[in-house]
Amino acid sequence: MELGTFSISLAVKDIGKSKNFYEKLGFSIFGGDQLNHWLIMKNKDHVIGLFQGMFESNILTFNPGWDNDGKKLESFTDVREILDNLKSQGIEIAQESIVGETGPSSFSMIDPDGNTILIDQHV
To answer: pTM for this one?
Structure first.
């Protein structure tokens, strides 16, 4: 099953300090808005999101339909197909935001250790 591009969303305490730290590791700002307490940072194919005050814990994120540069792929597995596949395997879904038959939608689940996994399709 193709889940899409992977990134991790970090719940940070101080976005400025976190930005400076990850810049020292070779990451640079790829998107976001520091004044609104969120940044997307990239180091080659590695992507992290820094989010201050938006959620309580870190989130593993997969984006069907996007490459590592946030560009739409010609072919990908739709979030709805991924959701149906996981449900058929007995995976419990924590949250569903499925809209229509195509296009942007998302859902999340919790792994056995309490980590949130978000499948978030933007295209």
So the answer is: 0.91
